[in-house]
């Protein structure tokens, strides 16, 4: 592919480029699951830290609401305990991260996580009743907004599932599977990728300051601008550079010499995937589907599709 910063936006990518895109997304997502899995598992199997881990997840401002608490752990003889559940989940997450980094079972794992990541949204305990004064510390913003980064990660997983295992993968090199299609319609997957990143910036900008809403910098208008430009499909490379820079700045700011290596990595684990996505959008842009100019020029055709020719 000939590089031109302001040049033609590609509508298709060949298998070689699709493999590179899959590699970047695979490494980003694999890092998320490797770090998150080990951080939780190391605490779950440590008697001195396991109770604190369970408390963190089961608290009113944790990650498991009363519905899933009753569904998973209720009854006189429950099949699972919270600690057993967290141990199994974190072990699976750790193994998934290792597998993705190595490039094995990539399509299967990306398909599973594309849906599993949404469970973190529906399991989050939230209190959003208007006028209700709660004495319990909980999440007071809608779960979809709090977990918007996981929604973005889900979009990346769908793209990885479609593209295959990518370059330098065990799947392709040794098992002869997970090959990318010879020609990939980048309009579809580029749209999904740019919206997966844009949503995080738009939510972080418009709802900056609300409880547990992730805003990378204290300049909401900048976040909104980056998100809207990405969503528009225009100047994607410029927006991708800005998104990458903002996330990198945020990540560096989260690091602390007083924290352990794994605590530092866990604090920015999701950002690894969004940095990878920003790199992909810079290199390959976001396709031509649902671009702003098309919506203005031919709104009916863009939204409803082409009409049948007489």
UniProtKB/TrEMBL annotation:
InterPro entries (UniProt xref): DoxX, DoxX-like_oxidoreductase
Keywords (A to Z) from UniProt: Cell membrane, Membrane, Transmembrane, Transmembrane helix
Subcellular location as annotated: Cell membrane
A Pfam family that the UniProt record links to this protein: DoxX
Lineage: superkingdom: Bacteria
Transmembrane parts of this sequence: 21-39, 79-104, 111-131, 151-170, 191-213, 219-252
Record has Transmembrane as a keyword: yes
Coiled-coil regions listed in the entry: none
A GO-annotated cellular component: plasma membrane
Its membrane topology: Multi-pass membrane protein
PANTHER family (UniProt xref): INNER MEMBRANE PROTEIN YPHA-RELATED (PTHR33452:SF1), OXIDOREDUCTASE CATD-RELATED (PTHR33452)
Family, per entry: Belongs to the DoxX family.
Protein name as catalogued: DoxX family protein
């Amino acid at each position: 592919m000939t590089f031109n910063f302001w040049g033609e936006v590609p509508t298709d990518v060949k298998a070689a480029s699709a493999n590179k895109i899959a590699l970047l997304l695979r490494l980003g997502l694999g890092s998320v699951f490797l770090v998150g899995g080990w951080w939780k598992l190391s605490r779950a199997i440590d008697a001195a830290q396991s109770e604190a881990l369970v408390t963190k997840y089961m608290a009113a401002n944790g990650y498991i609401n009363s519905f899933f608490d009753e569904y998973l752990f209720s009854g006189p003889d429950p099949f699972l305990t919270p600690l057993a559940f967290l141990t199994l989940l974190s072990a699976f997450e750790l193994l998934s991260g290792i597998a993705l980094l190595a490039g094995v079972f990539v399509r299967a794992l990306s398909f599973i996580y594309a849906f599993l990541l949404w469970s973190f949204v529906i399991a989050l305990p939230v209190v959003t009743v208007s006028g209700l004064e709660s004495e319990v510390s909980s999440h007071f913003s809608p779960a979809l907004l709090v977990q918007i980064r996981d929604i973005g990660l889900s979009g990346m997983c769908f793209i990885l599932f479609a593209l295959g295992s990518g370059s330098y993968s065990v799947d392709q090199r040794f098992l002869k599977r997970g090959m990318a299609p010879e020609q990939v319609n980048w309009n579809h997957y580029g749209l999904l990728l740019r919206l997966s990143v844009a949503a995080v910036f738009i939510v972080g900008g418009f709802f900056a300051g609300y409880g547990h809403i992730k805003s990378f910098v204290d300049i909401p208008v900048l976040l909104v601008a980056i998100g809207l430009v990405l969503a528009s499909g225009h100047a994607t490379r410029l927006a991708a550079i800005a998104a990458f820079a903002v996330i990198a700045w945020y990540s560096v700011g989260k690091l602390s010499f007083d924290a352990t290596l794994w605590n530092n990595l866990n604090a920015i684990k999701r950002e690894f995937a969004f940095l990878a996505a920003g790199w992909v959008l810079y290199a390959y842009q976001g396709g031509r589907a649902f671009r702003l100019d098309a919506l203005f020029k031919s709104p009916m055709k863009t939204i409803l599709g082409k009409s049948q020719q007489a």
